[in-house]
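Input chain follows. Return structure tokens only.
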Amino acid sequence: MTTNNTPLSIKIIYYLTQFVFWVTLLGALLAVFFLGAGTLGLFKETTDTSLDIPLRLELEETGTMTAYGKTYQVEIRDAVGTFEFSGLPRRVTTVIMFGALGFLALIISVIWFFRKFIINVKQGLYFTDGNIGYLKKMSYCLLGLWIYILIISNISAGFFMSTLEFDTVQFKGSKSESGPLLFGALFIWVLSHIFSKGVKLQQEQDLTI
């Protein structure tokens, strides 16, 4: 049962987790709806789509910056950006939506296990086998999310690098910013082992008493 002396910080994290979980779940349901509607042809055949493609761009652009009474030359060497496509066929947007659904599924899984973990903590259950399981599952989901983004980003970058062409832009390769996910997965995995040690100490204490 929930104790009356639950720390305020735990309560805040609990309610924020609940809010994020339900908002993310609602977003996933809307994505499923649009995916189904697009697949069934309820929308027009072509559409305008904006995508953040993980590509490193080398631009042949120069400019100036004026600061403290002086003007400085500026050259853009490495950049990323959002690409807007006009008239993509429905089959392409369907593939994009399926990729987004895989991403959302892993995100929801992480939030779900964290939500279960926080519920236990809010109830005063800290060093339990259930919490250890939730932490390990969170780390596995984050690792899967890192691998998923790495694969999708490289596939999409390779595809667009071979099909896109600009006059003043050159592609320098793919760029993925999913490194923090791998760090988070390792951190939570280590944390699960710390909790496992805590469970063993708690059991030894109970046996001593």
